[in-house]
Design goal:
- The complex is a heterodimer.
- Helix content of chain A is 31%, strand content 22%.
- In chain A, strands 31-33-34-35-32-39-42-41-40-38-37-36 form a twelve-stranded antiparallel sheet, with helices on one face. Chain A has a ten-stranded mixed sheet with strand order 6-5-7-8-1-9-15-14-10-11, with helices on both faces. In chain A, strands 16-17-19-18 form a four-stranded antiparallel sheet, sandwiched between helices.
- Chain A starts with a strand and ends in an 8-residue tail after the last strand.
- The longest helix of chain A has 23 residues.
- Chain A is α+β, with helices and mostly antiparallel strands.
- Chain A has 36 helices and 51 strands.
- In chain A, α2 packs across α5 and α13 runs antiparallel to α15.
- By secondary structure, chain B is mainly α.
- Chain B contains five helices and no strands.
- The radius of gyration of chain B is 14 Å and the shape is globular.
- Chain B starts with 15 loop residues before the first helix and ends with a helix.
- Classes of the chains: A alpha+beta, B mainly alpha.
- At the A-B interface, α15, α21 and α25 of A face α2 and α3 of B.
- Chain B: This is Acyl carrier protein.
- Chain B: Pfam families: PP-binding.
Amino acid sequence: MTTPVAIVGMSVLLPGAPDLDTYWRNITTGVDAITDVPAGRWDADYYEPDLERRADRVYCRRGGFVDPLAEVDVVSFGIMPNSVAGTEPDQLIALHVAAAAITDAGGDRWLPADRERVGVILGRGGYLTPALARLDQRVRTARQLVRTLGQLMPELGDDKLEQVRQAFSDQLGPDSPESAIGLVPNLAASRVANRLDLRGPAYTVDAACASSLVAVDHAVRELADRRCDVMLAGGVHHCHDITLWSVFTQLGALSPSQRIRPFHRGADGVLIGEGTGVVVLKRLADAERDGDRVYAVITGTGVASDGRTASLVNPDTGGQVRAIRQAWLAAGTDPAEPGSIGLLEAHGTATPAGDTAELATLAEVFGPASATDRPVIGSVKSMIGHTMPAAGVAALVKAALAVHHGVLPPTLHCDDPNPALEATRFQPIAEVRPWVGEVRRAGVNAFGFGGINAHVVLEQAPNSRPGPASVREPERVLRLSAASPGHLAAMLDTDDATVLATGLDEREAATGPTRLGIVDPTPKRLALARKAVAKGKGWRGRNDVWFAPTPLLGDGGGKLAFLFPGLEAEFAPSVDALARRFGLDWTSDALVGDVGRHGKGVFQLGRLLDTALRRLGVRPDAVAGHSVGEWTAMAAGGIHAGHQVDAFLDRFDPDALRVPGLAFAVLGAPADRVLAVLADQRDVVLSHDNAPSQSMVCGPADAVEALVLRFRADGVISQVLPFQSGFHTPMLAPYLDPIRRAADGYDINPSAVPVWSATTASEYPTDADDVRDLFVRHLLEPVRFRPMVEAMHAAGFRAFVQLGVGQTGSLVADTLQGRDTLVVSAHSPHRDGLDQLRRVVTALWVDGAEPDVSPLLPTTPRRRAPVRLDLGGALISLDARTRLRMPGQASALDGLVDGSPLAAELSSLLRDTADAAAELLTARRPAPAPTRLDSVLRVSVDTMPYLLDHCFFQQRPGWPDHVDSWPVVPATTVIGHLMAFAEQAAPGRRAVAVHDVRLSQWITAIPSVDVPVSVVPAGDDRVLASFDGYSRAVVELAPEFPAAAPAPWTFTGERTPDLTARELYDERWMFHGPRFQGVEELTAIGAEHVRARLVTPAAPGALLDNVGQVLGYWIMASLPDRTTVFPVAIRRIRFHGEHPAAGERLECLVRVTSVTDTALTADMQLVRGGRVWAEFDGWSDRRFDSDPNIRANDRAPGRNTLSTVEEGGWTRVHERWPDLATRELIMRNQLGSAEREQYDAEPPRGKRQWLLGRIAAKDAVRRWMWDHGEGEVFPAELLLRGKEVVGVHGREAPALTVSVAAHGELGVGIAARGRCGIAVEPADAPDAELKATRAALVAAFGAHHEDGAVPVVRSARVGNPPGLPSREYIVAWTADDEREMGT
Amino acid sequence: MSVDTTAPVTGGQVTEDTVLAEISGMLRVLLDEYGLDDVEITMDTRFHEDLELESIDLVSLSADLKERYGDEVNFAEFIAGFELEEIIAMTVGQLVDHVVVSLREAARG
């Protein structure tokens, strides 16, 4: 064979072995997996060993079975559990095993991105498999039954016969035409291809017991021919139908002694097994290149038929010999040579004829025994039976594992070997032994009925690395956020497992400004992260760790740029998986050195990454490019239309740009040093000022070469590059016409995003002619990349994403060295773009951006309960109830009915009684399995008026605008609804527990919303119930509540709470209105627990909400800050009875199990009459930023302000809510409807300051009003309009002038009669005080103040409070009326 | 010629160990710019794969080498004959060997 093929992944499902590891363990420890036929496969009364043989009698009932192992997590493959019944089980098992084999090879991401290069070929026979057998029963047997009955008993009549047919069919379950496709035999392979998206050849082959190895032979050829790069091959056999047993019985092939003993002197026949095995194959050279683990290498395959030489049932050695010789010829080894083989995994069916023929074959091919060379012969059939079409793969996997581990495995039941073995080199062994020998080489036989023979030669991998398989999981990303580096360090100050457990879901919002992100958080990376965080200095990307003490982006205010690389010496894009995931067109035939095509590839890649990043919510504040990457930037920025660039590049003649005799060189020196050397050169010019450590020159090849040598001699790293154009030099001028014409053809559009020019180191001009001029200058003048990056930094750019291949990013890093900057590439040669974008998203998130990671996450749902497959093919028995209803169940009384009314009455009475008894008896049968349910829940204050008592924000009594109060569906009400929908989907059953409750988003009631509901069965007794996008839970269903309840907890070390339940509500510690006020008594509180008494409220979900309130009280009483909490998840709630009625009293016990900065977890019990009614396990609250001031404001917003009043009467507020989620809450509490709209319309930059200013100014007005005798004034009652303040919904606002200013984390406001103005400047700005003073004057009196009198302007220096970035500000203020300004 | 200009600080024999220690020191200084302070550097450490150095980073390393060992060790000449893949796959050991050989030749020379 010219192409050795590596086995790089394997998996099996075989008798006694649900997976590869168990299979190998069973093989080496000699586990005998043969058992009696399980009930349900076929009926026991077929087994009649003592009676005369007949087609419908068997004399053997032992074999290899997988029934308890035949479980498949179908949902994870996107298959609905309710379609399983109608699907041939072997298709689902094949899918399961194939997926496991791919996982073993490295997982889905390991597969070639081009799925057209992956195929699957499985051996499978044409047997009466279980689903087909059931179809036969439904279609043929049912009709046959009534025809025969009708012919024998014509008195039954058509109606009764139809009843019989119906009763019979009903036992088979409902018709399901939609799953009929699951009966098509080749789907064993096609379903694998479909579900795993393999687009190469996918088919089944049938060569009886040789099928698997024939499939392997096909697969090897697919690889050798290079039509495919990865092949799945194997076999599948899950048929123990009685018809198959009948065939083997009639052939006399089954063992009368019911033992399978290959190569035993007394071997008397085969036992039937079943199973599935799949190997993942790849050309050895590719596997070595990719660093795959190689179990063994297939060096040869052979397939041959006996032709006419044998009878159809009795094997001949000729065909076997030819198949084996063919394979060894391909392997290039003489099989008869000493040491040629260490293990022969034989077909070994244990039939006398089969064993004899095989041993004769082996003697012929491998020669006679010698004293020193006794290779081992074995057959795994001695352990699992003959798995028919899957026999070859069961044998191949065994042999590959033996080669891989260097272990010779035993064969069972061969204590007295067949004398014919003596003529061969081989001997069986009963105990496992190490495999010593120069090269571990094995042969595998599989011979089929009818004379089809196959053989495979295996040998150890050239650099075989034995050892346990390592499974490559999809990369995980750890995200942590905290209020400060100190907090983050504290979170990391524990073992790795705990750190990993506290990581944020990538879809969750961050909670703090200090963030850490690690892709693939290995212990080493975690250790590195701890050090980086301890240092408190930013760490951006090395070793896939990102840490930002304070963000550069988002609240950090820095700008983000996209950088498009130009032509680099290497261009090998790896974005196939990315393009597929995002559904983007991607083909690249770029060639380095071919400027035109290379340029097109660079352009396409840049646009692909640009599109992908924008879909992830990553939007640049400007774009720029390096060299011709600037063209990509112009398209991405919107100046040029993409299709025009495409057209330009299509027409582009690369030869037109080849300037003869020119060369480029890269020099590891700054531009000024290069220019100094070039001063005495005439023909070589500087083409690129890339970075302090890199410049490029262009000129005649020999002059450039000389220059390179000169610099190199000076120790400067220098290299001539493989480009021959004169780009960015005057030397291109004579060749420029085609490009100039193309440029003139371009439409010039206003840019959507600023585009920077590396020719001018500034933004592109807006005038179309200027743009065209610059486009041409760009080709004739040097690329001034370093000055451009410097200018961008000066303009506030702090993050640079590279959108393409190469080292453009490292030029930025070199230029901005020592300054806090994030540089990250969206492309990496080391991994697909999909994985690389994960890093970009992580990096940007760490620096304060909020990209949307979800398009990058795997779409397969998490593992759910697997579905057990029905492999049975038993005869149909009618259940008792049907039998009673059927004709022919007449009693002796019925014969008397006509003559006796009494008999008639009695007969009828008996029938009724029997019906009633049957009803009772059948009622205890399990309820039908849950079904899928899709529905909609309308959430509004009309349908759920009680929500008006579950509003987050207080407003003036009678406030007409309910949305300002923000009514939200409580989490516990959500859970109640999920349970109710689950019960709807499973009639006759109760929701007895909920698991894995996730509450991801609040459901607000105004405006009303129709929430999509879905209930998906997840096993026999569970459903996944979801409010799409909001929340979900797995609901467990049972006919009744569990009888046994846990014991109520008891506590010690407690005290009387310092609040009463009444005060909890009256003093607004809880925002809940009367319909949610169920806490009647706060009984006791301890260090880690709290107890209370509840009165069940009538509102749905309110009782469970009260449990959360009790926990909320513990938090307020026990923790100093961050006491605003909302539930986000509950691991489990188990119920032990019906929901209590309104008014019922329960005891509530809360046990706090963990508290971190961001989260808090507790377990709870609700006890009714001394018995636990509900137990909560792992209730998780998320803690939001809050301090006492914020709390006070939440409790009484009409009497408190977030701002403080300063001497001079102005107000200031600092942003004490670093995370977005808390800011959202603060915003909703401080702004009314109209202002919220304004807030939403504010651009992201400055939004925070806008809000701070608003709050400060409105607080200034409210303070003024309170000073002038006003009572409660709520923030939503006031609205700023320019310099005026107006009242909302009937509130009269005083005639005041208002002035607002904000900077960084500070907002200031002033309100006065007459003119007033306020301004703020960062204290470290040059002339801060002067600037602030001027700005305050302008704010108060306008730009041209000419009043004559010099107004008094006061100023003060204020600093951020602890916990915020340390920053000082100068605040200056002035007003007409000095009195209004205080003293 | 003067031996002093090329002899390492150990004053005597040029050994792999001393050169590895010195180059490790240079790399640590270089990497410290990135904050990576206690990475283990051995003869097998790869510049690109393990230290995540890009080719532009080699420019500073080259300057450091020149400053330490003078003109006898020319890193630029050394890697001039390398293909791009070879530069990417280069190990610290290759550089150490080059320095040791260059210094010994110079000492002989």
